[in-house]
Amino acid sequence: MSFLKLMPLIKISHKWLSLLVGLQLLIWIGTGLYFNVMDSVKASGNQYRVKVTEPAADLTHLVEPKQILQDFDAAVSLSTITLLSKPYYLLTQDKALYPYFKNQYTLVNASTGKQAFVDKSMASELATASYNGPGNIVKVVKQDPPFDDRLKEKNTLWRVDFDDEINTRVYLDASSGRLAAHTNDDRRIVDFVFMLHFMDYAQERSFNNVQIIVFAIFTLFFALTGLIWTIELGFNGQYQFLSLFGSKAKSKQIKIFDKHDKLIDTLAMSSQENLLDSLLNHDIALPSTCAGGGTCGRCKIKISSDSRTTSADKAHLSQDELASGYRLACQHRSDELTSLTLFDVTQASNHLLKLISSEFISPYIKELRFKTIDGQPVSFKAGAYMRFFIPAAKGIAVPVNLPPELMHHWQDVIDNEYDHLACSRNYSLANGDGQSNELVFTIKIQMAPDSVVKPGIGSSYICNLAVGETIEAVGPFEDFFAKVEPTSAPMVFIGAGSGMAPLKALIEEQLIKLTTSRPIHFYFGARSQSDLIYADLFESLSDTYSNFNYIPVLSRPTDDWLGISGYVQDQLSLDFELLLGTHSIEELEFYLCGPAAMMNSSIELIKSKGATDEKIAFDDFS
Amino acid sequence: MNLLKISRKTHKWLMLFLGVQFVIWTVSGAYMVIFDIDYIHGDSLVENHQTKINPDKINYSLNALTQAYPSAERVSLGMFIEREVYRFEQDGKQQLVDADTGKLLSPLDKSSAVAMAKHEYTGRGQIILAELITKDSDNRPFELSKRYLPAWRINFDDMGSPSLYISAQTGKLVTKRHEFWRTFDLMFSLHVMDYEDEDPSNWLLFWFVLFALTASILGLILTYYRIFKAEPLSTDNNQKVEAN
C-alpha cells in the first residue's frame, strides 16, 4: 500500500506540529472548558439588568412628523420612542447595518418639536431604570470609542458606573438614549477568555485574525495526522481492549536467543503489551528513545520472516532485514511468535556509578575507574560497553586539573565555556581480567575541530567529573566479544587511539582470566610515544605470557624511538606470513577497534589475504 | 522513562475515542476563523440604502393615522423602496401604510416583496423562488425565526444560494442567508457538540473537553520527551566516541 509509505512523514509532521501548536491547543481546550462550565447569566454581563417597559406615547398630542422632518436634517427614518415616560422622535440620518456600527441620530422632543439631548442626569436616570442591583451610581461620563469593554462599539456612549460588588457598568448611546449594554467583572473575565480563545491579542473582538487562521490550519493538519496515526495503530493491532484491564491475564513462554543463536532464557511474556515493554519487565532494556512509538527505530530484534510488518518496521528496516525476519520490538506482541533473537542487548540494566579515580594516561586520553554505588559487581563479557547518561550542563573546552606536564598539548585550545543538552554516550569497558569490581574506561577528550563546533560534550563532561561524583549508566551491552571456540589458532588484535579499551579488555580476558595458550598478537597504532597508552602493562604481559606479542607502531615517533614506525596496517601486511605460522588464513581471528580509516584499510588487507567476514570482529568506533 | 510510557499509552487510548472529535473541532474551527464573519452574516449580500424621507411626500398625517388606527403603537416613518411609509403595531400586528395616500400596503403581495428583494440585493443572480411563509406553513426554514412571520422568502440563483427574507407586514428585510452561513451554523453546532440548541453548556462537550485536556497534556509530555529529551539519533548504535 503506497499510503503506508507516507506514515513516517505523517508521524514526523505530528511530532513537530505538536511543538508548534501544542500550547495553543491547550489554551483552546482550557478556555473551551471555561465556556462550557461558566454561568451564562453572569457571563452575559446582565446580572443586574431589567427590561425597561416605557408607557406607549399618546400619539394624539404629538407634533406632526412631517413638521419635524422639515425642521431637521434629512433622515432615513423617524421613530416614536419613549424615554423616561416622555415621547420623543428619533431621527436616523445615517443608518448602519448594526446598532454598534457608526449611526447618526437626532433626538427630538415629540411634544414640543425641539431637539433634545441625552445629558448626564438623563443618562443616569435611564441607567438606573435598567438596573436592579444594590449599587449606586459613582460615575457618569460621556466617552468616545474605543471602549475597553465594548470592543465593537463605534458610537459615542454614556458610561454609567455602579459601585456594586461586580462593578456594573451601563452603556447608553449618547445621541439616541438607546441602552447599549450592561457589563461587569464577570463579563470582563469572559471577554478575556474569549480574547485567548480567539487569539485576539489586538483586541478587535474578532476571530478572523491572521494568527488564528495560521494556527487553525496547522492544528487541522495536526489533528488529521494524529487521526491517521490512530487508525494505523488500530490496523496494526495496537489497540487490544484486554490490555486495558491488567496485563497478567494471558502470558506465553517465549524463547530468547542471543545473536549467536544461543538460547539464553525462556521468559513469560504477556500478549497484551508489546515486546519492548515485555522485555523491560524482565530487565531487558532494548535501546529506544521513543518508548514504543515506532518512531526511533532502535529496538531491533529478529522474529520470523513471515511475521507481519507494520509501517514503522518498513520505515526503519531494509527490505533484506525484513526478509530475514528483523522487526521492531515495539510493533509486535508475544502472541505472534514463539521465540525471538536479541541483538543490541543481553541483560542491561541501570546503574548509578561513582567515580573512584580519573587519571590522564596520554595527553588526550583519561583512564576512569567507577564502582557501582551499591557495591554490587557488574558482570560483563570483555569488550562490552556501557551507555552513560550525560545531563544537561555547562561544559568547558580545556579539562580541569590538567597536569602541568600536559599543558603544552592543550595550549592551542581556546578555553571557552558552553551549554549543552542532556545526551547519552557509549564507552567501552577497558578491563576484562575479572579480578576487580571496578569498571574501567579509557576515554579520549574530543576537541572541537574549529571554534564553531562544540567539543565532545560527553567526553568532556565525564572526564571532568570529580572523584566521588556519580553518573547514571545503562549496560553492559555485549556486542563485541571474543569467540569461544576450541582452537589453537592465533588471535590478532588491531587497534589505535582510544580504541584501546575493548581490545585491552579482550586481551586481559584471554591471558589472565582464561589463561589461553593461543598465540595473541596485538598491533597498536599511535602518533608518538606519549600516545602509547598502557605500554608498560603490555610490555609486562608479553614478558609474563610467552604466547602474547605486543607490537606498538608509531606514525610520528620522536628520534629516540627504537620500535616500528609507520602505520599499523602496513606493519600487519609485512608480518602476515609470520602471523599465520602453521595455520591457514581461515583459522585466524581478527579483532579491530579504532579510527574508521585504520579499520577500513586493515579489514581490506585481511580480506585480501583470504579471511572471511565471520572471523573479523570489529567495534565500530566512530 | 516511566512517565513517557504512561503518557504514550494513555494518549494513544484517549485519542482512539477523541480523535474524530479533534478533527471535527479543528475542521469547524478552521472554517469559522477563515471565513470573515461579516461575509458569513451576509452583510455583503445587501445594499445598505440611505434613501432619505422627502417631507413633501407625507400627505397622510399622524393625526389621520391615529384616527384610522386608534390602537396604533410604535409608529415610525421610513422608506419602502422609493416610497414614504408608516410602520406601526396594531394589536400586536405590524402594519405598513403609504404615507402619501394612507393606503394600507400590508400584507405585501408577491410583486412588492420581489421588488423589495431586488432593491436590496447586491448580487447579479436571478430570482428563482418567491414564497410566502406564514405561521401555519410547514415549510418554515430553521434559519428564519418565528417572530418574523409572515415573511417572503426570495431565493436567488447565485453563489451560495442566497435567500432574502422580507417581512410581509413591514416590508423590511428581516434576515438573509447563504450556504456559507448555513454551513457556519452547522460548524458551530459541531464545534460545541450541541446539535439542537447550539449551546456550549452541555454535558457531552464537558466530558469530551475534560478528556481532551488530559490527552493534550499527555501529548505535550510526549513532545517534551521526543523533542527536548531525545538522544541524538544515530544509525550506528555502537558509537563509542564523541562525534559531535
From TrEMBL, chain B:
<feature type="transmembrane region" description="Helical">
    <location>
        <begin position="203"/>
        <end position="225"/>
    </location>
</feature>
<feature type="transmembrane region" description="Helical">
    <location>
        <begin position="12"/>
        <end position="34"/>
    </location>
</feature>
<keyword id="KW-1133">Transmembrane helix</keyword>
<keyword id="KW-0812">Transmembrane</keyword>
<keyword id="KW-0472">Membrane</keyword>
<protein>
    <submittedName>
        <fullName>PepSY domain-containing protein</fullName>
    </submittedName>
</protein>
